[in-house]
Amino acid sequence: MAELKLTNVAKAYGEVTVLSNINLDIKTGELIVFVGPSGCGKSTLLRMIAGLEKITGGEFTIDGDRMNEVPPAQRGIAMVFQSYALYPHMTVRDNMSFALKIAKKSQAEIDAAVAKAAKILQLEPYLDRLPKALSGGQRQRVAIGRSIVRDPKVYLFDEPLSNLDAALRVATRLEIAQLKESMPNSTMIYVTHDQVEAMTLATRIVVLAGGGISQVGTPLELYERPQNEFVAQFIGSPAMNLMAGEVVETGAQTRVRLANGGEAVSSVPTLAADMGMKVNIGVRPEDLLATTGTPIFKGEVEITEALGEVTLLYFKRAGGEAQVVAKLPGIHTDVRRTTVALGADPAKVHLFANGISLRHR
Amino acid sequence: MSPALQGLITIVIGVGGCVAYFYFSNLFLDKVLYPASGPNAGRNINRANMIRPWLFLAPALIALSVYLAYPVVETLRLSLTQRVPGGGYVWVGFDNYAKMSGEPKFWEALRNNMLWLIVVPALSTAFGLLAAQLSDRIRWGNLAKSLIFMPMAISFVGAAVIWKLVYDTRPADQEQIGIMNAVWLAFEGGPLSVLFLKIVPVLGLLGFAFAVGLMAWVLIRPLVRPSGAAAGLVPLRILGAAVAVWLIWVALRAAFGLIGADLPYGVPQTWLTIPFWNSFFLMIVLVWIQTGFAMVILSAALRGVPEDTIEAAIVDGANPFQIFFKIKVPQIMGTIVVVWTTITIVVLKVFDIVFAMSNGQWETQVLANYMYDKLFRANDWGVGSAAAMVIMLLVTPILIWNVYNARKEMR
Known about the structure:
Helix content of chain B: over 70%
Oligomer: heterodimer
CATH architecture of the largest domain in chain B: Orthogonal Bundle
Low-confidence stretches of chain A: none
Strand order of the largest sheet of chain A: 6-7-8-3-9-10
Helix content of chain A: 10-25%
Number of helices of chain B: 16
Strand order of the largest sheet of chain B: 1-2
Shape of chain A: elongated
CATH superfamily of the largest domain in chain A: P-loop containing nucleotide triphosphate hydrolases
Order of helices and strands of chain A: EEEHEEEHHHEHEHEEHHEEEEEEEEEEE
CATH class of the largest domain in chain B: Mainly Alpha
Structural class of chain B: mainly alpha
Structural class of chain A: alpha+beta
Low-confidence stretches of chain B: none
Number of strands of chain A: 21
Distance between the termini of chain B: 50 Å
CATH topology of the largest domain in chain A: Rossmann fold
Largest sheet of chain B: 2 strands, antiparallel
Largest interface: A-B, 25 and 17 residues
């Protein structure tokens, strides 16, 4: 049971401001993912919530109580670190019971909590082992177990999967999802730079960029209705194609003449005053389709990457334009070095003016 | 020729000789003895590679056997012989050892060595750890560390001279130049004197006795109350417990002696002539020197403790003391053991400080100075060598353990 509220939270190291104007409401039972490029401050924000970094501006409350000055142990949070941070000289059992011993809980209580966590995480056979005798995935589970035994209001995960290999990462991601499922009332905050983790785990995603929040929303909201070009390109892989153009027809549907000679129709409505406005259209690679009508883009395929279920087509760059990528279902290696014309459903064409989505103005 | 020039020439010849040895012997092996050409090239390369390590090891092996292995064997031989007046020697078996064990001075030296062995490594490591931890996060920490480390650069004799001045005594009507007496004369028998000279030291001694008692209990517990875990090393445990009991007795005797003592306030003391306590005044010198060593090594080890385990402990609610004793210290336990045993070996060999400050008088004798006394003053090479063998016997197990731990640390 925990409601977290961040109001105008900021972080500065001396003169350098790394985070500012962070406003966020987190409700009980949510799994919030902080995602963003390296150096965007997502880990710093998590550590501020944990109490490991000082909050230099604004207010942070849990269930209405101001937490800015409360030491980490009294915030009711538990944290899982990127490198597990297990105490190497303690057995799994001692690692998990350390916090409870510090809190002077009775031995019976400690044993019960450890046994319960070990059962959830299937760590029972390993309780008397030292961390060095465990595999990476098991160590990660111990780190999670160390959090569970404390029964915290809020779980914090700092890139917990980034030290695992690809196969284990998928398995552990699923375990975390199951863990969340088994504790529906626990609030979790999860930091990652991996958008797949963000999309699969999150109740809501917080995209951080440039020292602030770029957009907050459910994974599908971010995917379908990005508020700005940054989010549009950050979520989804390969990134959304952006092409410069000019509005030539307004109304319920907008027609844009593109600098590359193509023409795009978007279902985003525009006003008459927008006529002639410089905009970028955005189309996801998976939304581009071969067309016989007026194409959005026409170009020569330079490279194909066949992944089995889809094929990625990389088009030759024209001048200073960004490379256009299309993702077509099935295998299409034969289109290499041929010229392909691409169009898209107007509902899938996004419009951005000055980096901001026109759908959201 | 100027001595500086001589020194320079020695260095050039020494270093040049080494380089020349390795270069030319290697060249000889590859080009003349087993050339990597001709019909047997492959075989020759294999043979050369088998010989090469020995070639490179040879100087060290020869130096070690001439200056280390041979003296050990020779000392063992000498300890079993006795000089005959007018030249020559006779085999006397273990007579020298028997003679030595009949001398009270030998037992005094052994007892003092035991005290040194426990007090100096314990205090040096404890102070070193404290200094390393306290100087870790402060801006002038590095300056403090340099100052604490500086005594390491002073020879033992130099340190002894410095501390002789600290303990210096002048007749009562003259001005005292020793710090100890200056401090001592500030006490005049009031309540503060009782607090600092009786209550605090007695509490310290009792605390020490209690700590040793705990350690003895930890050693003995598995023997008394057999639990699931097997209790190995039974003789070692009993020996350790016996030493602990002796230490408790020493500490309690000193504590009660201090309570009953009628302290001569206002009279300058000749510190180095006060039996029992003077050994500690000498130990302080070595602690002063070795703390810097312990601090530097432990400081590096503390920096190596992963930051996130400390943060995890903070989140777990540990206070700074718990973080230090339950998270940091256990993680650097291996290094602490290495530092401890390294200092132990230095302590077992301690000679210069005792020689320069008290020369073993007033019950401050230690084994190395006892050996020197017998060997070079009494000209009794038999008993002197026997004493040397005793020192070696004491050092060897600690040395082996030290090397074992150091290698474990490196892995």
